[in-house]
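Lab notes, practical 5.
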Amino acid sequence: MEFATQCLHAGYEPKNGEPGALPLVQSTTFKYDSTAEVAALFDLKANGFFYSRLANPTVDAVERKLAALEGGVGAILTSSGQAASFIALMNLCRAGDHIVASATIYGGVINLIAVTMKRFGIEVTLVDQNLSNDELSSYFRPNTKALYAETIANPSAQVLDLTRMADLAHAHGVPLIVDNTFATPYLCRPIEFGADIVVHSTSKYLDGHALGLGGAIVDSGKFNWSAHQDKFPEFSEPDESYHGCVYTEAFGPAAYIVKARAQLIRDLGCLQSPHNAFYLNQGLETLALRMPQYCQNAQAVAQFLAQHPKVDQVFYPGLACSPEQQRAQKYLPRGCSGVLSFTLKAAAATAQAPEAGRALAARVIDRLQLIALKVHVADIKSIVMHPASTSHRQLSAEQLAAAGVSPTLIRLSVGLEAVGDLIADLEQALSQL
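Output from the prediction step:
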């Protein structure tokens, strides 16, 4: 099936007399006739549902749909995008391990890895993803367990060179984990370019309507865990918490995603709720219709801002002047999403004074009338935010600079309104500077 058809039909195929729409199974528990049946479920010897902390029919159907859309062997829906990033990494790491991550990733994930996971004894090195292979290789260590980056960086809009990063990760015997939230599988399928694990904040474009929090992990099934048993023994050695189950032997290509559910979802309890999965499915059904319009609107807004006398720089890979355009043509041929960022022209003194720069950005944001100030992005409605004051507020000055977040940077998530109305709103706000 083509992508648009998969959005509607993958994951749930009603049988004779069953509901045509995916049912919402709002139940925590499931009844069985014998203890032997339940024991087989707990031993991972049978498929089924026994408690919605681990699996649920509604959640399962949407997981299968998303795995199909990304081209993976399996998926897990989590309670948030942050939970997805955490589970994806913790499924590989233990105390004493190390992660290499792009410095341009979402500020919340930087804080997750650099602060919270550091308390668990896991270190991270944040790197400039545009460095040469030799320079990037110098940051890998014998205890490095993953390379983590974003397809389209938040908020700098840098486009990841997926093939190069995948080759680099594999040369060091580790998987490439890619956050594909901004691109969605409609615009880019990272697995096709060598990525091993894909994560999402499903609260964004996949849901599309800001209805339900959620995240997702998709396993490509292509990383050879057995070939790297020295780095990842937990996949190829008996798991005593499941009666000696060896994941690579029992589940083959799906070893990673089964282990993530059996160990981490089981113990941490952060599966997505059935209700939020139901909302997510509604959004996925129209993903192939919405994404082209987001891209078309954002392209028009980016071109308007690029010519505005009050705007200094526009960061959008679809612009002809963007240094990211060549990568965008390779990895994002259908469009560059609806998210862009721009900086304001300011006096030298303002540019060098963070508080003055933030105040200048605030003047524009506070004067917008149609475009709403919300702590969100990639929504059906247009949203504006000031990253230095919100999503990246906890980062140091050095980390902000590495992430491409300047004091006057404004992130704009272009929605599905009439683009002329959006441009008019931006014009009236900028004209008051």
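Observations recorded by the TA: The mean pLDDT is 94. The first strand starts at residue 74 and ends at 78.
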